[in-house]
Fold this sequence. Notes:
Blueprint: E1 18-29, E2 36-47, E3 51-55, H1 62-69, E4 77-82, E5 85-86, H2 92-99, E6 102-105, H3 117-122, H4 133-146, H5 162-174, E7 180-184, H6 192-209, E8 212-216, E9 228-233, E10 236-238
Parallel strand pairs: 3-8, 3-9, 6-7, 7-8
Antiparallel strand pairs: 1-2, 1-4, 4-5, 9-10
Helix pairs in contact: 4-5, 5-6
Amino acid sequence: MTTALSETKPAMSFESTAAIVVQNLDHFFGTGELRKQVLFEINLTIGRGEIVILTGPSGSGKTTLLSLMGGLRSPQSGSLCILNTELVGATKNTAVESRRSCGYIFQAHNLHSSLTAQENVMMGLEVHGTYSRPERRDRALELLELVGLAQRSQYYPESLSGGQKQRVAIARALVSHPKIVLADEPTAALDKQSGRDVVTLMQKLAQEQGCTILMVTHDNRILDVADRIVYMEDGRLVKAPVLAGTGE
Length: 248
């Protein structure tokens, strides 16, 4: 694994073929006297197929940055390119199209309690609007089999363990074969073994599908899966400290 350094310089020469290129990105919450800057001059380039971990203290802006990349918030200034599509100033249709290229894994898995595991995974294909219901069923079952939950495809979330719920969330994120997977604290609610299993599974499936992973985490136990570690503090990317237990 490479050294745990943040990417604080402008986008590198391979930016045209990178999955994510962020340049001089600022972001604010609120308006008027309540306006507060939460991201400061973010510069980050992530290559296609790269697995990058974004870490740092709570409240440092990690989830905000992830949500901008995933199209859950609109970027306000600077430049944010996802697969060569500029999102700053993008039209709604452009933003929606870009969002379809990303799979998003939430900290709390965000499964619908009234839907089975299979139906939850099928929802990962809803935004595409190009699959028939039988096709969505078949693809969802295929992904559940890959994550080891084929026998629980008709279970509701309340009947699944924390690790199993997160596996369903991973299947939902990957069912459309996204080019980018954005994961927000995917192991936060899991014990050590379940967390390791989930991250190893993400790594394996993403590599097989050839997609890029950007993962926000506080979990020092899983840092070894990354090609690179990026550290954020107070809304800025900074040089990462040596983290206990990482061997760096």
